[in-house]
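Dear Dr. H.,

I hope your travels went smoothly. While you were away I took the liberty of generating a structure for the chain from your last submission, since the lab meeting agenda had it listed for discussion. I wanted you to have the full record in hand beforehand rather than looking at slides cold. The sequence, exactly as received, is reproduced here:
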Amino acid sequence: GAVLTSVGKANAIPLENITEPMDFAFTGTVLRASNDRIIFADDTDGTMLFHHTDRHNLQSWDSIFVKGKMVIADVDKTRRFLPEEITVLSNGVEPPVIDASARDINNGKYNFKLTRIKGVVSSCIPDEVDHRIFWAQLKNDSGNCYVTIGKKAFSRIKPRDLIDAETEFTGLVLPIYGLRKSLGYHMGVHKASRIKIIKPPSRHPFTE
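The corresponding predicted structure, in token form, is as follows:
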């Protein structure tokens, strides 16, 4: 069959039509690289998640060519992109950060874009399933939104330090998934340098 060259078009193929593995070849940008997962956007703004092995040593914002197969996973009947070959075309440069409001985050206006948001944190609790992630609720003039914070980002501060503090977060806007459909959007933060307490809570003196 024909090789898929657009992530958007690949994502639009109904699951029931994927009866056998389909070849893909995409060129685009790594939005986030973690130990084993890559969030990738191609030039048509389609996005996908794929698993990889560490030998590729991919960095955020690298430009890459990736080819492989799109399949339906037996476990949960969702589409999976399985890379077979990854080539780094150029090392990435971080794009300019976009200042966003809570409303901007919630409506997906900046989905998969690097954004910055300020507000007061009203709660910060660990995820019920994945304890490596904390969910912070942030409030500002345009409403409330969620920021997920990876445990590694708490190297300098503790989750409780954020409660009632005016805080600035910088991260990628991402969909919140539940039972295979998007339930809205949140900002994902994975580095300590992406969290800045602007004004600590007044209830206790701030100590470095």
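Two observations you may find useful: The CA atoms of residues 171 and 189 lie 5 Å apart. The radius of gyration is 19 Å.

With kind regards,
E. W.
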